[in-house]
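Z., the sequence and structure:
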Amino acid sequence: MNLTISMNTVLNFLHSMSLSTSNKLWLAEHLYEEVKAEKKAAAKTASGWPKIRREDMHISPEVANLVKGFELPEDADYDQLRLDYLMKKHG
């Protein structure tokens, strides 16, 4: 059975309990640790390589002119492309 409740309902439920400050701190710390772990896991690809976001890339104007108009398809396997490149370069 799936149950959908709003975050306000969860918060109101927690407020209705008489939690001590240390209990609230414990809950907050555990939730925060889970969030950090989920973010860290989401930031890596299946191969363990960090995901590269477009906003993280700094490309020189010369290189930008070379690749102007070139785009990879949406379903490109970046891990395989990276491996192919490395094998061609160093293999």
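The mean pLDDT is 83. The radius of gyration is 23 Å.

Let me know what you think.
H.
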